[in-house]
Write a structure and sequence with these properties.
The protein has about 325 residues and is an alpha/beta fold. The protein has helices spanning about 5-20, 35-45, 50-65, 80, 85-100, 115-125, 155-165, 185, 195-205, 230-240, 280-285, 290-295, 300-325; strands at about 20-25, 75, 105-110, 130, 135-140, 145-150, 170-175, 220-225, 245, 275-280. It contains 13 helices and ten strands. The strands form two sheets. It has an eight-stranded parallel β-barrel with strand order 1-2-3-6-7-8-9-10, surrounded by eight helices. The model has no long low-confidence stretch (mean pLDDT about 95).
Length: about 325
């Protein structure tokens, strides 16, 4: 079965249209909010959760306005919003709607992981449909894609997979992550001789069967950090040849962040230059704090600093892909 206009189709086409592998992570932090926005909402709401939520939403909207012509998708990490209770969650929900109105694919970094009825509710709320008192089912957050944890395996992933198929959504399953301690478990060798991340990759490929789109790629994909791309990328691609990968771990050129470099991106891609998209959060949304951008824009035009950082990241990644003879553009 082929899913027409699947998540994988939409993502691949958007990447090609924008000629960019980069997506922006909208992970607002109070420390990233420029002073003029802080003052505006402190004056309006006082020092409250309402002020934080309103500041986050304007911050996100201005970033989306600057970045949507350049990038294929925005990824919102719900942890940065939900800690501010209702006002934070409202900002999260409104930012999703605004990003979608600008034509972006919208992903949630939620790393959900449960079984049976609880997993079903996570999936219904974020990807599928929720039931009202009348019995009618309607979308809630209605994301295009959600990150999920692999640890509970098929009992968990199967619930999310149902909504991937029914509603043309996507999930990105944690496999080889970008954090330094990932190796403590993910690199452990099993009796089969495979690393844990390779064993999980086999299951991700299996879970993706039946989620293929018109482009032949699966909408059950993986999270494979850029940090370890040169070491594990080629072997994991062998286990997941048609799975899209979300790859975190890149940052500003001045800072190491989680260790990923533009030169590592080709290790994530197939020979046709497809198969992955690279998330940058603070490297884009907090770029205004870096001297080279602050001297040019100050904090009043923080979104222009984000735009310039995204363009720079795009150029460096695309140059690396050309040098690896995998360029599509």
């Amino acid at each position: 079965m082929v899913i027409v206009n699947s998540f994988s189709d939409r993502m691949l086409r958007a990447i090609d249209e924008k000629e960019s592998y980069v997506i922006v992570g909208l992970d607002p932090n109070v420390d990233f909010i420029p002073e003029h926005l802080k003052r505006r909402y402190l004056d309006k709401y006082g020092d409250s959760f309402e002020a934080v939520g309103a500041a986050f939403l304007e911050f996100d909207k201005r970033l989306i306005d600057a970045l949507h012509p350049l990038l294929s998708a925005a990824k919102l990490n719900i942890a940065f919003y939900e800690c501010y209770q209702g006002p934070g969650i409202r900002a999260f929900a409104e930012a999703i709607l605004y990003a979608r109105s600008k034509g972006l694919q919208v992903l949630e970094d939620g790393k959900r992981d449960e079984v049976e009825e609880t997993a079903k509710k996570y999936s219904e709320g974020h990807l599928g449909r929720v039931k009202l008192l009348s019995g009618e089912r309607v979308p809630s957050y209605d994301l295009d894609c959600l990150t999920v944890n692999s640890y509970l395996m098929t009992d968990s992933i199967g619930q999310f997979r149902n909504d991937v198929i029914a509603h043309k959504k996507g999930i990105q399953v944690l496999d080889k992550t970008s954090n330094p301690s990932a190796t403590e478990l993910q690199d452990e060798k099993l009796q089969s001789g495979l690393k844990v991340c390779e064993h999980v990759a086999k299951y991700i490929d299996k879970w993706g069967e039946g989620t293929e789109g018109e482009e032949g790629w699966k909408s059950v994909g993986a999270v494979v950090g850029l940090t370890y791309a040169s070491v594990d990328g080629p072997s994991l691609r062998g286990f997941m040849p048609r799975s899209l990968w979300l790859s975190p771990g890149i940052g500003l050129k001045q800072k190491k962040q989680q260790g990923g470099k533009p030169e590592d991106v080709p290790f994530l891609l197939g020979n046709d230059g497809r198969g992955a998209f690279v998330n940058s959060s603070r490297g884009i949304i907090a770029a205004w704090k870096e001297p080279e951008y602050f001297d040019k824009y100050g904090d009043e035009k923080f979104e222009f600093a984000a735009r310039d950082a995204a363009i720079d990241m795009d150029e460096r990644i695309n140059d690396a892909v050309v040098k690896a003879h995998k360029s599509r553009w």
